[in-house]
């Protein structure tokens, strides 16, 4: 079995990074107490924005990782903020609620924020966090529409310019096994890429509809298009993220289909089938479906080249069959990938690494998912440049909600 030495997210060595980092490399020569906190060995003080399902799940992982201390949290709903705040020992005075609770959180003393709100809010909250001088750990997807993706791209650039870390939490990209396999692809071990396929059948998701009132929708936001982006963006982006990582290109256009065979007319789709067209006549076939009884979950991507192929599955691992073979270990990426990202977030902050390589990759895969959604909604063809020019924003109904 061939085992390749894994590289960091940019494929560069630390020496190369320091040589080319400019201002950032100078920053590393400063008193390390200026990196964060008041002492070199103090914990990074963090605040959680979004205390719902994933927010409450990920909070203990930061606490258990070491090197972090929760000092604030914010959620629209007081019960959620109090639940996380109590478990993480956050002072009641720093548990913020309402739509603008995150702004009051950002005004306080802390080093970084973890954003786990519904995806619609990510672009604004991330941009405001960067402007407040905080490091940002952002959940996927980064946005529900093209303008939101562009806003995240700008926030990432701004973070780099301001010497702040901005990390997007895709678990597969954090895996050493995926990185090793992708390095082989970059070295040409599967030859010139011909085509790819990606799939995301998922037992979960349910067959529900959006709740009636804005507050109910905010609490149970998954079926609300403007809050989630539909499940091709909110969930199935995992397989599209891996596929675009392998292809290392933006799609040119997509032809899509899909609909609701199990969900009511007011809900999001329950299935998509999209054909993506990339440069050099590379085609990616993508399908995703939810809520089929007894269905086995799969988050997969496979790309074929002239000399072999790479096969990935979130639950089964990754392997390469080409000029050289590689077999990655099987791990639970849902937890191991998240823990790896949490460790790297800490490492990037404490060593002063501000190139923020996950941002552009996340913008690419998020736009790919949105392009597929819009092609399926149109039941036809949509070009990426047309999608960007149109700049259509999704806006949820927030009337009557507490500021």
Describe the protein.
It contains 16 helices and 15 strands. With 403 residues, it is of the alpha/beta class. It folds into two domains: 14-172 and 352-356, 3-Layer(aba) Sandwich (Rossmann fold); 192-331 and 360-390, Dihydrodipicolinate Reductase, domain 2 (2-Layer Sandwich), CATH 3.30.360.10. It has a nine-stranded mixed beta sheet with strand order 14-13-12-11-7-10-9-8-15. Strands 3-2-1-4-5-6 form a six-stranded parallel beta sheet, sandwiched between helices. Strand 12 and strand 13 form a beta hairpin. The longest helix has 21 residues, at 358-378. The radius of gyration is 21 Å and the shape is globular. Residues 1-40 have low confidence and may be disordered.
């Amino acid at each position: 079995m061939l085992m390749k030495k894994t590289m960091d997210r940019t494929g560069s060595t630390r020496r190369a990074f320091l040589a080319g980092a400019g201002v950032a490399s100078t920053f590393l020569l400063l008193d390390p107490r200026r990196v964060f906190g008041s002492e070199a060995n103090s914990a990074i003080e963090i605040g959680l924005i979004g205390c719902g399902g994933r927010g409450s799940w990920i909070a203990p992982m930061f606490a258990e990782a070491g090197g972090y201390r929760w000092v604030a949290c914010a959620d629209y709903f007081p019960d959620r903020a109090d639940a996380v705040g109590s478990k993480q020992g956050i002072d009641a005075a720093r548990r913020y609620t309402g739509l603008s609770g995150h702004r009051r959180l950002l005004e306080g003393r802390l080093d970084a924020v973890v954003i786990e709100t519904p995806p619609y809010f990510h672009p604004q909250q991330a941009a405001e966090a960067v402007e407040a001088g905080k490091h940002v750990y952002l959940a996927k997807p980064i946005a529900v529409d093209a303008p939101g993706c562009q806003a995240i791209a700008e926030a990432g650039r701004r973070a780099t310019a301001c010497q702040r870390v901005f990390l997007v939490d895709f678990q597969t990209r954090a895996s050493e096994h995926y990185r090793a396999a992708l390095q082989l692809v970059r070295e040409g071990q599967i030859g010139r890429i011909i085509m790819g396929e990606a799939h995301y059948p998922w037992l979960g998701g349910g067959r529900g509809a959006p709740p009636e009132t804005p507050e109910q929708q905010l609490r149970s936001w998954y079926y609300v298009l403007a809050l989630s982006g539909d499940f091709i963006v909110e969930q199935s982006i995992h397989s599209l993220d891996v596929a675009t990582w392998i292809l290392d290109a933006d799609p040119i256009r997509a032809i899509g289909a899909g609909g609701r065979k199990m969900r009511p007319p007011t809900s999001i789709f329950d299935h998509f089938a999209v054909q993506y067209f990339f440069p050099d006549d590379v085609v990616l076939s993508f399908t995703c479906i939810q809520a089929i009884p007894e269905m086995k979950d799969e988050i997969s991507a496979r790309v074929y080249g002239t000399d072999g192929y790479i096969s990935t599955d979130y639950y089964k691992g990754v392997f390469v069959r080409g000029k050289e073979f590689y077999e990655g270990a099987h791990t639970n990426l849902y937890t191991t990938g998240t823990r790896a990202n949490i460790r790297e977030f800490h490492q990037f902050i404490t060593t002063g690494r501000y190139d923020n390589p996950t941002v552009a990759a996340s913008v690419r895969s998020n736009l790919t998912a949105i392009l597929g959604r819009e092609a399926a909604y149109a039941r036809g063809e949509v070009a990426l440049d047309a999608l960007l020019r149109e700049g259509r924003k999704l806006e949820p109904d927030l009337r009557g909600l507490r500021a």
